[in-house]
Sequence to fold (190 residues):
Amino acid sequence: MFKSAIGLMCALATASPVFAEDTVTWQDDVEGWSVAIDRTIDDSCFIISGFDNDMFLRFQFNATQQNVQLIVASIEWDSLKTGEDYDLEVAFGDLDSWTGTAKGHRWSDILPSLVLSVPFADKQASHFMREFTATDTISITHDGSEIANLALAGADEAIASMMECQATMSQAGATKRSGKDPFAPKPDPI
Fold:
């Protein structure tokens, strides 16, 4: 089953020329996770892994919305509706659960997924990311039923690579925004 999940993930990555151009691999295999850059959300970095139950987990920065996002997807969720709100509880190991509202989404218009956003404000995103890397499992519940229970083996190394990726992309973005020619002499402010 894991091979079919990886096959689906590869198919999604190449399903349309736009998607293939909008995603760039940063590091191919970090303890079972891929680290990549999503050009559609202002060069934000993400990690992604497929699981043997045909589920996928993606964790990303979203520079355009100033948050981090946890995306869980399953080929089994045919009734999930794009744009609809779904209340979720997310528990990392035995830590207290996070609650929030996720948006239904069709990844590449094919794969049903839920997108939970955690804002940078009040250090919520950094706290969420710290818990993500501090535990070995994630459990996601909707309407009292567990919809995902996944092992997070290697997530701490993958997040470290994602942070390095994001620092590089942020620096590149700052250079890009500073002007057309970053090598031109700076004007004298006096």
